[in-house]
Design a protein that fits this description.
The chain has 250 residues and is of the alpha+beta class. It has 8 helices and 6 strands, in the order ααααααβαβββββα.
């Protein structure tokens, strides 16, 4: 098969783990090959389905009560010993709760970045990457009115190194948002905008963990909106586009 050598690396491509040169070559091939494009979309949908299924199973309150009951200690003979033991248990309980909290926050952050990367890759693999095709921000911005429950501003990029390709609606979980696509030196960069309050369970501030994706990402909260800028362009290009959006919303 002509595409067999490409499809062998398709999963690695979707995970963003190919070297930069191979990612560029794969992007170009997926855009021009309907078979590989369809396979990429199918695998992205399956990956997101597996992630959603994994979130359905969590310890119940009854399970927690049974565990606590099984490790409950018998009364001690001395008040002093009982007090010291209770204090130690309290410290351990607080430490455990803090560790659980930070682990949950980290997991949510990693999941958010992973899903954003999936949306970016799915758009690159799609034969129709944008629903409104225009380099004019005054055409793209009004297109979203009535389609998403918030408004946003787009920066003027005519005198910059960036070009606007257009936009489309997208969803992160069940939250609707805007997906803009920009180009810079043959690289495509996705800009995702969602309501920050709608992403409470997926919220992740700061730099993403290094292990999930190889794309460069910038994210911030501004005016009640959560912005994600992601692509295989250089960190400087990602940050420069983010600065243009931040200046527009300030």
């Amino acid at each position: 098969m002509v595409c067999e050598s490409w499809k062998v690396k398709l999963d690695t491509y979707l995970d963003g783990e190919l070297p930069s040169e191979e990612m560029h070559a794969f992007d170009a091939h997926v855009h021009s090959c309907s078979s590989c494009s369809a396979d990429a979309l199918t695998r992205v949908q399956m990956k997101r389905g597996i992630q959603a299924a994994g979130k359905r199973f969590a310890p119940t309150a009854e399970f927690r009560r049974r565990v606590q009951s099984s490790i409950a200690t018998q009364p001690h003979r001395g008040f002093r010993l009982t007090w010291m033991f209770a204090a130690a248990l309290s410290v351990l309980a607080v430490a455990g709760l803090l560790a659980t909290y930070f682990q949950v926050q980290r997991s949510r952050g990693e999941q958010a970045y992973s899903e954003i990367a999936d949306l970016h890759v799915a758009a690159l693999a799609s034969s129709s990457r944008v629903d409104v095709v225009s380099t004019d921000r005054h055409t793209v911005k009004p297109w979203f009115q009535g389609k998403i429950p918030f408004s946003f501003d787009l920066p003027e990029v005519q005198n910059s190194e960036f070009s606007l390709l257009g936009g489309r609606m997208t969803y992160l979980g069940q939250s609707p948002g805007a997906h803009l696509i920009y180009t810079v030196r043959k690289h495509e960069i996705s800009v995702f905008i969602f309501q920050d309050t709608a992403l409470r369970d997926k919220r992740s501030d700061g730099a993403p963990a290094k292990k999930e994706i190889s794309f460069n990402v910038a994210t911030w909260n501004q005016g009640g909106l959560r912005y994600f800028v992601i692509g295989d362009a250089s960190p400087a290009d990602i940050n420069n586009l983010a600065k243009l959006f931040k200046a527009t919303g300030s």
